[in-house]
Design a protein that fits this description.
The protein is an alpha/beta fold and 350 residues long. It folds into two domains: 3-21 and 28-186, Rossmann fold, CATH 3.40.50; 192-344, 3-Layer(bba) Sandwich (Glucose Oxidase, domain 1), CATH 3.50.30.60. It contains nine helices and 14 strands. The protein has helices at 3-20, 62-73, 95-107, 132-137, 149-159, 175-186, 227-232, 256-268, 297-304, and strands at 48-52, 77-80, 111-116, 141-144, 163-165, 192-193, 211-214, 217-226, 245-252, 277-284, 312-314, 327-329, 332-336, 341-344. Strands 6-14-13-8-9-10-11-7 form an eight-stranded mixed β-sheet. The protein has a six-stranded mixed β-sheet with strand order 2-1-3-4-5-12, with helices on both faces.
Length: 350
């Protein structure tokens, strides 16, 4: 994710709002501990799911069509956001249009859950203008990842809402993802995630290997998402406390120098010193920087995470991949850095 674009959009949005409305001062303090935990209700076949595009614009109608087909597979009805097809540059409409759809879905009593059709860029522009009391009064399932990390973290920081880092509507919904979705949102099972084991035809694991950074077991509130968004929200009221948390991260399309800068930001902001456990998912299409050479991701994890002495591993199926874990954010979990198992200890829905 392009962090320069993210930071520019966040800064311009906050600055513009401060000039237009002095009520922004209510959001001026950096978030500390989150509000009391807020959970949505389980979904049932026949419920209505709202679909929105709070970040990047859609390039084709097929994304909406496939999202509807996915939800129909589970027996859900679908309600489209009014501006789901809008475009404003690379964004799915102006800030006010995207904000309208977000607010409308939370306010609509007929809508039981919200699925983002895609991520992209621009969700952070909405954060200073969101009606968080509306969210508090109408807790609903919110599912998405990548740029949607901004909403997931802000909702948790401001009102304690448990949201979900996972597939978007335009993702590839494999049988594996469909099973996780049903178990999480319809059956409300306690999730236990572990990368698939090797096939019988292989003598060792080749695909989806984990790498243990520091062995051990940790328990804590699990929080995380896209690295660009987590690091970019440092110092804002939209990032929750990471005290005694398990932090998970993923990334896409970033060069090594930018990855190193973002890890450095998390360390310098004091976030890494607070956590009890660390999980890194996939760094899809990440590569070396130009110039005189680049650090590898393994070197960065050894530099920033290993000295913490906490249970930590990388390679979890979290991020921009087809078969990805659906990660509730804000509930307690246990991780085993030696085996790569993530076990949720608390149900995410009512």
């Amino acid at each position: 994710m392009d962090k320069r674009t993210f930071l520019k959009s966040l800064g311009l949005s906050i600055g513009a709002l401060a000039i237009a409305d002095n009520s922004v001062s209510a959001h001026s303090e950096i978030a500390g501990s989150v509000q009391s935990l807020l959970k949505a209700r389980v979904l049932k076949p026949g419920n209505t799911i709202g679909i929105i595009t709070p970040a990047g614009a859609l390039s084709e109608e097929e994304s909406i069509t496939m999202t509807k087909e996915v939800l129909a597979h589970f027996g859900f009805r679908v309600k489209e956001g009014k501006y789901i097809r809008a475009r404003y540059g690379n964004l799915a409409g102006t800030d006010q249009e995207r904000l309208h759809d977000l607010h409308s879905m939370f306010a609509d009593k007929e809508v039981h859950g919200i699925l983002c059709v895609r991520g992209g860029n621009g969700a952070s522009r909405l954060l200073p203008q969101i009606d968080y009391e509306l969210i508090r009064r109408n807790p609903k399932v919110l599912l998405g990842y990548s740029d949607i990390t901004a909403l997931i973290l802000a909702f948790y920081a401001k009102v304690g809402l448990v949201s979900f880092h996972g597939v978007v509507g335009s993702s590839t919904w494999s049988d594996y993802v469909a099973r996780l979705f049903k178990e999480q949102f319809i059956e409300n099972k306690l999730a236990v995630y572990e990368n698939p084991k090797k096939s019988d035809s292989q003598i060792i694991q080749y695909k989806d290997r984990i790498q243990t950074i520091t062995p051990g077991i940790a328990e804590g509130t699990i929080i995380g998402g896209n690295l660009t968004l987590v690091s970019g929200l440092c110092g804002t009221p939209y990032l929750p406390s990471f005290q005694d948390a398990i932090l998970f991260l993923e990334e896409i399309d970033e060069k090594s120098d930018r990855l190193d800068r973002m890890f450095c930001q998390l360390r310098n902001a004091g976030i890494l010193s607070q956590i009890k456990g660390f999980i890194f998912g996939k760094c899809t299409n990440c590569g070396p920087s130009g110039g005189y050479g680049s650090l590898t991701l393994e070197q960065m994890l050894n530099d920033y995470i290993k000295p913490l002495g906490i249970p930590a591993f990388s390679g979890a199926m979290i991020g921009h991949i087809s078969d990805q874990f659906l990660m509730p954010v804000g509930v307690r979990a246990r991780m085993n850095a030696s085996t790569g198992v993530i076990e949720y200890l608390e149900k995410s829905l009512l």
